[in-house]
Specification:
5-stranded parallel beta sheet; single chain; alpha/beta; elongated; FAD/NAD(P)-binding domain; 2 domains; 7-stranded mixed beta sheet
Length: about 325
């Protein structure tokens, strides 16, 4: 694609939400164009296909009784979308103008796309500590993860010492979940009190197999092919110590991929996620829809993202029909 094109529906992003939206839109003969982004480093790799591209084993998605790797799942999603006619462009959308229809999308190669409707499915990325070994073991399936609900029940983590980094509600949810599987859950927090709500914090503090390491931060992640321990640094004294663990879960938040929406008029919430209307996938702009982790800070699961992608495509199809676009 070069120059300028005119589309009925453009799906920005990929992953479970984007590909599911593409499958539904393509089967509805909307001839969707999927602009899936390009690989980048931030500080962990950010790849077309979303967070699942960094997930080695997916065991909680229906239809895969033996499990499936994240990259393999996303490859299957893409092939299914392309089978029904979805078109794919490996570029970034760098700017959107939703002030008038057709909407205008500026791409990273300088080309322009005009669209009668848009589905935003750019996801969110986990915030990482930025340590070399942390990122290496996260991308190789070595026991470092940013989602306990996704990975904590894997056999490799059962009845083993695990660690969670963070002090907010997300970290408390992750730690509470892991208490069902781990021998010990080490909660590592750089301050002397949690930022989480009192109720959630107390639930963790009351768990018999939780050990909290106050005023500590992870200085290094130790291990060759799999994590063997974390090296901690005391934030007050600078003293170093080591904790043996077989799993490390980073729970210091996520960042929605919404920078390209600056100035577009799309309403974001206080954390930068796309704000949805009370109904379905609609944003505050007529003809612009959103699905998946870019608009969901609560669940962040592949199956919920796929459901949101389905809803967005159906909402978009109905909207186009109501506006005489066939």
């Amino acid at each position: 694609m070069s120059g300028e094109s005119n589309e009925k529906v453009v799906i920005i992003g990929s992953g479970p939400a984007g590909w599911t939206a593409a499958i539904y839109a393509a089967r509805a003969n909307l001839d969707p164009l999927c602009i899936i982004g390009v690989p980048k480093q931030n500080p962990a790799p950010v790849l077309p296909g979303g967070q699942l591209m960094l997930t080695t084993d997916v065991e909680n998605y229906p239809g895969f009784p033996e499990g499936v790797t994240g990259p393999d799942m996303m490859d299957l999603f893409q092939k299914q979308a392309e089978r029904f006619g979805a078109r794919v462009e490996g570029k970034d959308v760098v700017k959107c103008d939703f002030s008038a229809r057709p909407f205008t999308l500026e791409l990273s190669d300088g080309s322009t796309v005009r669209a009668e409707s848009v589905i935003i499915a750019t996801g969110a990325t986990a915030n990482w500590l930025g340590l070399e070994n942390e990122l290496r073991l996260a991308t190789s399936g070595g026991g470092v993860s940013a989602c306990a609900v996704c990975d904590g029940a894997l056999p490799m983590f059962r009845d083993q010492p695990l660690a969670v980094v963070g002090g907010g509600d997300t970290a408390m949810e992750e730690a509470s979940y892991l208490t069902k599987f781990a021998s010990t859950v080490h909660v590592i927090h750089r301050r002397d009190e949690f930022r989480a709500s009192k109720t959630m914090a107390q639930r963790v503090l009351d768990a018999p197999n939780v050990e909290v390491h106050w005023n500590k931060q992870v200085a290094d992640v130790l291990g060759d092919t799999t994590i063997e321990a974390v090296e901690l640094e005391d934030t007050v004294t600078g003293e170093r110590s080591t904790i043996p663990v077989v799993g490390l879960f980073i729970a210091i938040g996520h960042s929605p991929a919404t920078d390209f929406l600056e100035g577009s008029g799309v309403q974001l919430d206080e954390s930068g996620y796309v704000a949805l209307n009370t109904r379905g996938s609609e944003t505050n702009i007529d003809g612009v829809f959103a699905a998946g982790d870019v608009a969901d800070s609560d669940y962040r699961q592949a199956v919920t993202a796929a459901g949101m992608g389905c809803a967005a495509a159906i909402d978009c199809e109905r909207w186009l029909a109501d506006h005489g676009v066939h």
